[in-house]
Design a protein that fits this description.
By secondary structure, the protein is an all-alpha fold. The chain has 15 helices and no strands. It is flat. The N and C termini lie far apart (64 Å).
């Protein structure tokens, strides 16, 4: 079979064109994209270093003497471990007790927010009932009410049910922080981004609302659950107002309350204070390092659909 010159030219024109540029090389006319990327990296790295500077300053100050801590110097002169020694020996109760109290409250508050927040978020996202949108607006409105404004009624309620004495004080703190409006909002937004077809397929198989929620929706919401867990653990770990009001017994104090013990009326013991701050920061730092991927995915996906 022979091919005419005109047919060969047509066949050549119909063949797909292969890019002649090498991988990683910007095409002609787009030379500025490489410089923009480099500039973006420089800005992001500089911003990250700027955000890391306070923690670095905290660590450095914890190794200074009291006299050197009030000077604007970067390196300790001389290097001293007195702040760390005093932090572990002078606090009453000690750091292990404060750490255990904070950890127990943070875990309980995080678990309660994951359970109650996920159930409420699924109900607001999928269930149809009268007044759903109005109730959701009321939930969002609670974020505008500051904690001091709720102090008197909450305190009276806890006292009436006997949650202000002994070890029941821990329960009082957990009850006040059991579920937060941001947790419900984030999980509701994430559930709304999940295709409805998955739930419809589960209903065809005979699954009810709770089975669909527990076996299908909840596993798919792992990124949002991780984001809520990190936010609530951090908030309850650093919480100061409600533990200060409810935990009236000294042995029930948490780490944020222990920080106040190094702040005197006329002076602040900066090395000891910064040493306790470093200890209090480490759990949050480790939690974010291990779950940062889920945290970013959850926050990003929660804003997809409103």
């Amino acid at each position: 079979m022979t091919t005419t010159p005109g047919g060969a030219a047509a066949t050549q024109a119909m063949r797909p064109q292969v890019a002649l540029t090498e991988p990683g090389v910007a095409p002609v006319g787009d030379r500025s994209s490489g410089w923009r990327r480099k500039l973006a990296y420089v800005v992001l790295i500089g911003y990250a270093l700027l955000m890391f500077l306070p923690f670095t300053w905290t660590v450095i100050t914890s190794f200074k003497t009291q006299a050197d801590s009030v000077r604007l110097t970067f390196f300790p002169n001389p290097v001293s471990l007195r702040g760390w020694e005093n932090a572990f020996t002078e606090l009453d109760p000690g750091i292990p007790v404060l750490f255990a109290n904070s950890l127990g409250i943070a875990i309980a508050v995080t678990v309660s927010n994951l359970i109650l927040g996920s159930m409420a978020g699924y109900a607001f996202a999928r269930l149809r009932f009268p007044g759903r949108e109005f109730l959701f607006l009321l939930v969002l409105a609670t974020m505008m009410i500051p904690d001091p404004l709720r102090l008197v009624p909450v305190y009276q309620l806890l006292r009436s049910v006997g949650l202000l004495g002994g070890d029941l004080q821990y329960v009082g703190v957990v009850v006040v922080l059991a579920v937060a409006a941001p947790s419900i909002f984030l999980l509701r937004q994430y559930f709304m981004s999940i295709p409805v077809a998955l739930e419809e397929a589960a209903k065809l198989d005979g699954a009810g609302f709770f089975t669909t929620f527990w076996r299908i929706m909840l596993p798919l919401a792992t990124p949002a659950l991780a984001a809520v867990a990190i936010l609530q653990f951090q908030g309850s770990w650093n919480g100061f107002f409600w533990p200060l009001i409810i935990l009236t017994e000294r042995n029930n104090a948490t780490l944020p309350i222990g920080l106040v013990l190094f702040q005197d009326t006329y002076a602040t013991r900066w090395p000891e204070l910064m040493a306790v701050v470093v200890i209090a920061t480490l759990p949050i730092l480790l939690l974010y390092l291990f779950f940062q991927r889920y945290f970013v995915e959850g926050i990003a996906a929660a804003g997809v659909k409103g």
